[in-house]
Amino acid sequence: LERAEDAARRAGLSTQPIWRKLWDDVMKTRPPNSESITCWRKKFLETFFSNVLHGVLDVSSDWRLNDQHFSPLLHSSPHVSQLTLCNMLQGAVELTAEHNQKVLENLASSLHILKFQHLLSSDQSIRHSLVLLLHRLIHHGSVSQVSMYSWPVPDTVLLVLILSMSAGFWRSGNALAYHSSPCGLCREEGKAQSQELAHERAERGRYDEREQSDGENQVGSPRAPEEASVEVNRYRADTCLNPVLSRPRSPPLQNQACEEGSSTVPCDHAGIQGGYSRCSSSQLSCGSVLRRTRRRLKSAVGKKRRCLRRSRGPYADPEDLYDFVFTVAREDSSGLLDKNSAAEGENADSWTSSSPGSPCTGHAGCKKRGGSAGVFSLKAARRFRSVSTLELFSIPLTGETCRTLSNLLSSWVSLENLVLSYNGLGANISCILTGLRALSRRSDCQLRVVRVSDVFSHMPCMELVRCILGAFPQLHTLSVSFDLKNQLEGNRPEGNPSCSEAEIPESCLEQLEIRFPREPLHTEFLLPVLKASKSLQQLSLDSATLPCSQELGLLLEALKECNPSLKKLSFHDVNLAEHQKEVLLLLQDPVLQEITFSFCRLFESSTNEFLSEIINAVKRNSSLKSLKLPGNRLGNHRLVALADIFSEDSSSALCQLDVSSNCIKPDGLLEFTKKLEGHIQQRGGQIQFTHLRLFQNWLDQDAETAQEALRRLKAVCSVVNDSWDSSQAFADYISVM
């Protein structure tokens, strides 16, 4: 079937039905979300690979697959774009076995998403296999996203190992001993770098000879201006290239030995990213060096060489591949100080230090004695390619782990998406902010999406929003979500100024989502964020309480004034029963294209006049494309009335309507369908309505009527519904009450 795929495509034939039948024959299970599967070939081969790898599918039980000349993993590996490893990481051991070397090479090209789920503690041999797997798939592969799910009691060593290798760090024996590395790609890179280094040293030796000769002849025969200019340019190139070529391509981020070097020619390790050195302003200017004697120049170069030699530690035990010297909070802090603050300047307001104003100041879980927070030793680690997306779901992060993650984040410039969901951060959220603030100062930072959600909030939602946005004005998406308010929230560390007092610079924010843990929504706190976010296009407010009747009106005025580009506005679980005027103003807005009132009690105390006003407002609005009204107790009669939105005299451009969870019964849906068909006929079939969502309604009470209504609706638009047991759901609701 694989060999016939190209020929079938050229002939205009589809093999999708055959792959679908193969799924039923081989997998013998119903695929989840089958309606959303666009390519059954890819779906089959990717699932087939995972099931064979984890022993779910017994190849020997199917005569078509039980062939000694056929390797299931090798055949399906080029089609695998995402892979999940779970439990004891048996999959990692299998993939790094010698007989699966070609499989691993295929995955290095095809795999983009690597997931870990329900992990358990593992021994050293398994961690060794995991290190080799991550090194090949991330550092020398195409994996761009690492996600971890459901790890109630995480193994700290294993967790930090995955995080650090995702950030691009690896220590194979000695960090600089390329030839002792088990990775062939690293050995080839080491050989190329050795040749480059030898060539550079030869060039530098020839330059020194020319300089000495020119110095002897300079007395009595001064060089022409052109020669002096060429010499200046040659020295500038030499001083900028030498720091790069005379050290490993991916050096450690921290190097204490450099502190011992000359203050005249410092070793700027903190300014290195991905192995490339920056010529900082603290280095000697090229013009001033030309005025120094050759003896002073040779002395400075000698000190740089000695500094580099001191940075090369002794060979480490090759068996300790997994051990990245992660002795967080156990080593003396004097040996673990982060040098990032040195690169940013001695007087910089660095969150990586424990200076006043740092969010970590005063937190026991986020402050180290006499040093910076969230630091561990990376002196022995090389820097490789890193992923762009990191997601952590339901994994408790201790203070020690948060400090490690903070230190990794501070230089993770390739990171574009960060998702931290239900990690029990608590006060350690300040430590994460420390790393993010340090990262934001990097000119090559790529972070654009940050999502933070948890059960308890350590600080008010708006304060956290302002804190993150103040540090990261270049963010495009920011989501902050908490279930409950921390009762100890008022006990804040002394000396830590509130983020709500800091001014927010103009930002690039396009999407803002806030889930309040039943906190009051004060527009005065949200207003600075809205003013700084002129490009805001989507705003979602969830589970907020309105402290007074004027608050929603103030919010709408602020949105109209500050965010003219706003296209999507969503309210979820916000009581709008007493805010009918504001609801109508939103439905009349000429800019908004999507409005969501989800579980907002719109019709809890309303009259039929309010429903008529809603319908008339939507009929006159030609910009509104999507209206979502789930969980608002519409019932049958209000649903039937909504069909008038598409009447002959309507100028509405509404394409999508969501009426999920609205106590709709089959007879009401059928009546709505008939009324909608009448309006479409009156308009000559010209209607833009394309999608109707009907999740969790009472359609199971009369299956025959419901099927007729759905059949007729599907001739008009795309209908999305589910097989929901309303009786069981009602029983669950009563039990919760």
From TrEMBL:
Species:
Dryobates pubescens
GO cellular component terms given for this protein: cytoplasm; nucleus
Bias type Basic and acidic residues, positions: 194-213
Xref: SUPFAM superfamilies: RNI-like
* Biased segments, Polar residues type: 349-358
What does the UniProt keyword field contain? Leucine-rich repeat, Phosphoprotein, Repeat, Ubl conjugation pathway
From the UniProt entry, list the residue stretches annotated as the region Disordered.
194-229, 337-369
Q: What is this protein called?
A: Leucine-rich repeat-containing protein 41
Q: Which domain of life is it from?
A: Eukaryota
